């Protein structure tokens, strides 16, 4: 793990603890060169979960990939990494429960619902990319539901 400040290649772990009910390891690291301290998270991916897509193909679930999509919707919004971590951990628990497979449409609508609670603008951005609204009316209906 290199230092994010000076790019020194070897940093030491000064503290390490479990978080998110044991599914992630939080490490405090320190750079021996510039004394910069930073935190890393190592998270266990739900590698066994398979996503079935609308076109009938399947691929392994990737939190990293989903998170990237969510961050695009949350750009410059008051949403924190912590909000997204919590949201995804809760949803992953739901998706992985007694099932080896989850539909991509389920992932999309669950994330939309969670984002709607977190930030309305992020919700609309995410929805406009991930949901194929049939027409403007349908999109307006969806927006209407948010503000009533
Ligand atoms: Zn450094």
Which shape, going by the Cα principal axes?
globular
Main pleated sheet: 3 strands, antiparallel
Number of helices: 5
Distance between the termini: 48 Å
Q: Runs with pLDDT <50, length 5+?
A: none
Strands, total number: 6
Report the portion of residues in β strands.
15-25%
Radius of gyration: 19 Å
Bound molecules: zinc ion
Average residue-wise pLDDT? 84
H-E order:
EEEEEHHEHHH
Estimated structural class: alpha+beta
Order the strands across the largest sheet as they lie in space: 1-2-3
Helical residues, percent: 40-55%
Oligomer: single chain
Structure description:
It is a single chain. The protein has helices at residues 63-74, 81-96, 104-118, 120-130, 136-146; strands at residues 12-19, 24-30, 37-43, 50-52, 58-60, 101-103. The protein has 148 residues and is α+β, with helices and mostly antiparallel strands. The strands form two sheets. The chain has a three-stranded antiparallel beta sheet, with no helix packed on it. The chain has a three-stranded mixed beta sheet with strand order 5-4-6. The model has no long low-confidence stretch (mean pLDDT 84). Bound molecules: zinc ion. The site of zinc ion (ZN) has 8 residues, from loops.
